[in-house]
Amino acid sequence: MNNIFLIGFIIILIIKNAFAYLEGSKTSTTYLSSTNKFNYHNITELVVFGDSLSAIHTNFNDMTYTGINNSKGESWTVHLANLNNMTLWNYSVSGACIDKDM
Q1: 11-16 contacts: CB < 8 A, separation 24 or more?
Q2: What count of other Cβ atoms lies within 10 Å of the Cβ of residue 54?
Q3: Minimal CA–CA distance to 75: which of 85, 88, 63?
Q4: Element (H, E) at 88
Q5: Three-class HEC string of 36-76
Q6: Is the pTM of this model over 0.70?
Q7: Cα separation, 23 vs 62, whole angstroms
Q8: pLDDT digits (tens, 9 = 90+) for 22-51
């Protein structure tokens, strides 16, 4: 009986690891609108609200920012804006409370 559980566990691990190497787009389900097609390239501005995962130490007086997050690396917000030539409006603050009960 223990051998059956062990073999089943090994099979599950093999299947799980086989799918872990696929891109998300290959394992994800996509629901496209037939009436209103989303065009990512038409987006010119990126507005971000959030906590330390999105914060880049913005000076809210003139909306300048360092572009560096708390881990001293480039934030995903700056990377996305630069990659797609978007204007970034980042209102994120480290330690901000992200809570539906606010």
Answers
A1: none
A2: 20
A3: 88
A4: strand 87-90
A5: CCCCHHHCCEEEECCCCCCCCCEECCCCEECCECCCCCECH
A6: no
A7: 40
A8: 566 566 666 676 777 767 788 899 898 887
